[in-house]
Amino acid sequence: MGSGARGDYAARVPIHVHGGSVLLARLAEAGVPGERLEWSEVLCEGPVPAEADDEGFRQIRADWLAEHVGDPAAVSRIAAGLRAQDEALAAAAGRDELVLWTGNEWFCQAIALALIARLGPAGARLSWVAADDDPDRPGCSVSELDEAGLRQAFAARECVDPAAIALAVQAWDAYRAPGPIRLQSLVDDAAAFVAWPALRGALALHLAEWPGREDGLARTERQLLAALADGPADLGALLTACGRAEARPWLTDLLVLARLRRLAEGDAPLVHLAGSAPPELKAEITEAGQAVLAGRARWPTPARWLGGALLDAATPWCWDGERGRVVQWA
């Protein structure tokens, strides 16, 4: 991560924060001292509009999450869960050191970005733990550590310094903007990420989810169609295929399923889905999907959220793969 000094945090009772209960349980098993707090949200996906206050933001997120897990009746339960974890986080932040266990992939980076942008300016005592990428075990790098590695990583944790907090505020605001230009300009400036190098690559992956200039596909949608070009596949196989296409895999089964359902919509769907839900669900590319994948047709962008932007067929920005950046339609 950054180069923040340890400061006086070693004298405090640490509260370990991560988006998964498995890692938190392993910290206890490894004898890493401190309390544990799970704070889990899929902030790399779905609406994060800038104009919403905290309660409105949670409601917007709950609506989206309920829709994407296929359970519209769960909105109230999900909203209550989001509120409860926010309240627990706020209470912890006012009490002791928060240790953020953060992988280098976009899923974890988005959570760290939101938490640091929220808690850092308020004076929370923040430190973070990161781990180098392991090419043999890509994904959330901190989750792949063994017990000795967890203890060593905790001992080597660093304070989240003011430069990283300032970057988080700037990047979070740009991520929540209704268009991509502020975020693209920030990502263009490599020097801006000295305090947090992994964030730049993660945000670049987000920008590549804008509709492709030639085919209208997000980067990960293109990955799915390419995997289906070899024949029908189930969700697990497609998740594996997408993971192989990434240096730092970040998609989950929920996010792959959301993309498949989106590709299966419309008058000329790119994917046909058989079976109502995993594990029975299987996907197959259609003739329309083959045409888009081959560059013979362009998919009209369906309505979807990307950070703070609501995309549709009239969206004036697209991803230019040759230039590696978001541009405005010519």
| Model regions low in confidence, pLDDT < 50 over at least 5 residues | none
Taking strands numbered 1, 2, ... along the chain, how are they ordered across the largest sheet?
2-1-4-5-6
- What structural class is derived from the secondary structure elements? alpha/beta
Overall tally of structural domains: 2
What does this entry look like structurally?
- This is DUF1835 domain-containing protein.
- The protein is of the alpha/beta class and 330 residues long.
- It is built from twelve helices and 13 strands.
- The protein folds into two domains: 9-207, Dna Topoisomerase Vi A Subunit, Chain: A, domain 2 (3-Layer(aba) Sandwich); 219-300, Winged helix-like DNA-binding domain superfamily/Winged helix DNA-binding domain (Arc Repressor Mutant, subunit A), CATH 1.10.10.
- The strands form four sheets. A five-stranded mixed beta sheet has the order 2-1-4-5-6, sandwiched between helices.
Short synopsis of the structure:
It comes from Nannocystis exedens. By secondary structure, the protein is α/β, with parallel strands linked by helices.
Features:
330 residues; alpha/beta; Dna Topoisomerase Vi A Subunit, Chain: A, domain 2; Arc Repressor Mutant, subunit A; 2 domains; five-stranded mixed β-sheet; three-stranded mixed β-sheet; 12 helices; 13 strands; globular
